[in-house]
Structures are given as C-alpha cells and as structure tokens.
Amino acid sequence: MSAKILALDTSTENCSVALMINDQMFTRSEVAPRDHTKKILPMVDEVLKEAGISLHDLDALAFGRGPGSFTGVRIGIGIAQGLSFGAELPMIGISTLAAMAQACYRVNQSGQVVTAIDARMSEIYWAQYIRQDDGGWSALLMSDSQGECVIPPQELVDNVLTSEGLWVQAGTGWAAYHETLSHLPLNMQSSDILYPEAQDIAVLAQLEWNKGNTVNAEQASPTYLRDKVTWKKLPGRE
C-alpha cells in the first residue's frame, strides 16, 4: 500500500522537501547553508499547496536523521517533530547516506554506491551500499562491524572492504579528500550527487512504512555517528 509521505532534510548544505503521493512527487530543493530555518517551512507549505492537501491528510512524516551537520540535523528533526506533533503523524527517520545511494539509483540505476560526506576535522561520514531486491540498501560492514561510520580518509583507505564491480561515488567527501580517497582499492566512478534529497528519503520511507517501521514524534532521534567533538579551548578558559 502506498502512503502519503512528506519528507524533509536539512542535514547538509542542501535544504529539501518532498511530498510523495502514489506515483507523484512534489519537490523543492535549494543549496542554502545558512538559511535552513527560513527555507524549510515555506517549502513544506508550497508542496502541500501544489498537491492540494494538508498535513492532516498525510500518513507519515519522514526526515533525514543524519549523519551530517550537527546543527542541520537538529534543525531538521526539530521541525519534523513539530509538524508531526501538530498533525499527530508517525515519523520515519532515514539515513542521509542511504538517501544519496538512492539518488544514484534514481539518476543512473547504480546498484553499488560509496557515500562520503565531509565531516570536517579531517574525517568523513562513510558507508558502502549495495541495493537489495526490495529496493532498500544494505551497508557493508567495516572491520568494527559498523555499516555507517565517521573515519579519517587514510584510515578508510587502509581498512575498506575490497569488493568487485563498479562503485559510484556520492557526497561532498570525495572532493574534500580527493587525493587520499583516490587510493581506495575499488573500481569507482564519480557522480553529480553531492547531497541527500528529500525525494529519495521519501522513497526509502515508503519501504519502512510498508514494514511498519515508524515511531512517535517523541521517539524520533538523530544519527550523529561522532560521539564527541574535538575542539581547542580558548586562552584563559579551563
């Protein structure tokens, strides 16, 4: 059964909203690194008006749960929770890395995707995905049994799982650490997919809806991957 799903994402420099109703997709997307809070709700209003429905007509609200910018992820989940509370909608969190893999499939039917978002502090958010028969994505596990991780590029080169076939690159990490990541022992091809998009989050959320994988607004949670932030103390501070 196809659900009416509103999806939004502010986890990276890109800000996007999508409304999926059966085979129709209403979308808004803009790279606006500092204007997420100004852009996202007007985008929501626009897609709802274009489709001729209200929040109360929806079945679920999906959001990009991260990883990505700490501030961006918090903005996205906070706005999504507010909309969900107001309309009493269940929520579905989708990995931003998996959403980029889905974008590669949408654009060029790629079934093997390596995703890398620049995580700053000389690290990347990383996952290596293979598309499954049901349309979902499975992340290959690293040596520490993690599918998605935050990792220094050189450490990734030393520990990545070598796999056959062509792997399509997605994300901002490839440009940020091009020299180091070019040494990965994989047959790779670049793509134009830099950021997660709400329309791909909506597609993956439909799969989760079909499985009954929803949560209440108060249970919705982000995925940061990085447990702590390394920072230098200012002079004179303890």
TrEMBL record:
Segments forming a coiled coil: none
GO cellular component, one term: cytosol
Presence of the UniProt keyword tRNA processing in the record: yes
Any one of the GO BP annotations: tRNA threonylcarbamoyladenosine modification
UniProt keyword list: Cytoplasm, Transferase, tRNA processing
CDD domains: ASKHA_NBD_TsaB
Compartmental location: Cytoplasm
One Pfam family, short name: TsaD
Main location: cytoplasm
Transmembrane regions: none
One GO MF term: transferase activity
Residue span, Gcp-like domain: 30-229
Family named by the database record: Belongs to the KAE1 / TsaD family. TsaB subfamily.
PANTHER family from the UniProt entry: TRNA N6-ADENOSINE THREONYLCARBAMOYLTRANSFERASE (PTHR11735), TRNA THREONYLCARBAMOYLADENOSINE BIOSYNTHESIS PROTEIN TSAB (PTHR11735:SF11)
Protein name: tRNA threonylcarbamoyladenosine biosynthesis protein TsaB
